[in-house]
Amino acid sequence: MMQTADKTDEVKLNGRDLRIGIAQARFNRSLTDRLAQACKDELHAVGVQERHVRHVMVPGALELPLALARLAETDEFDALIALGCVIRGETYHFELVADQSAAGVMHVALEYSIPIANAILAVENEAQAWARVEEKGRSAARVAVEMANLMEDLE
User: Fold this and answer.
1) N or C: where does the chain have the smaller number of CB atoms within 10 Å of the terminal CB?
2) Are 137 and 39 in contact (CB under 8 A)?
């Protein structure tokens, strides 16, 4: 019988020996820059060394999966992080970008068997994005480190 997690489960957030790749979308740059800074600050807080973080930029959220795949192909990283922000506009394009970028990120994670923390915000407006950007950046860092450690434990 499978057990469920509870508050007593220990989360392994030691990033000391981990190598992390970050792919950031430039679209909505002020928001994605803040996501990246919060993410990097949290990676540092959990022990990931700055020299073990590779940060690349792409034009927008739809380009993130390709950059993540290339990073995964190098076999140099224990986990990857996708950073982006998609804000609803007046057309269907929002749904396409939000859905396809998320599906692409998941496809890369499964194809390369590498944890990818998906921090691509999909929001109704800029105010919602600013309200979430700090925590989403920190959360992405914690997810990447926790999942990298879990993958190591499962080997």
Assistant:
1) N
2) yes
- Does residue 65 contact residue 108 with C-beta atoms inside 8 Å? yes
Q: Which fold has domain 20-146?
A: Rossmann fold (3.40.50)
Q: How far is CA 60 from the centre of its chain?
A: 14
Residue 150 CB neighbour total at 10 angstroms:
13
Tokens of 102: 């998320």
Give the helix/strand (H/E) hosting 56: strand 53-58
Residue type, 110: L
Residue 79 φ/ψ region, left for φ over 0, alpha for ψ in the -120 to 50 degree band, beta for the rest: beta
Any idea which residues carry the catalytic annotation?
93
Q: Which helix (H) or strand (E) holds 22?
A: strand 20-25
Enter the tokens of residue 143: 């997810």
The mean pLDDT of 32-60, rounded to a whole number, is 98
- Please name which of 126, 117, 50 lies closest in space to residue 85, comparing C-alpha atoms: 126
Strand arrangement of the beta sheet that strand 116-123 belongs to:
53-58, 20-25, 79-87, 116-123
| Confidence check: pLDDT of 10 > 70 | no
CA–CA dist 64, 81 (Å, integer): 10
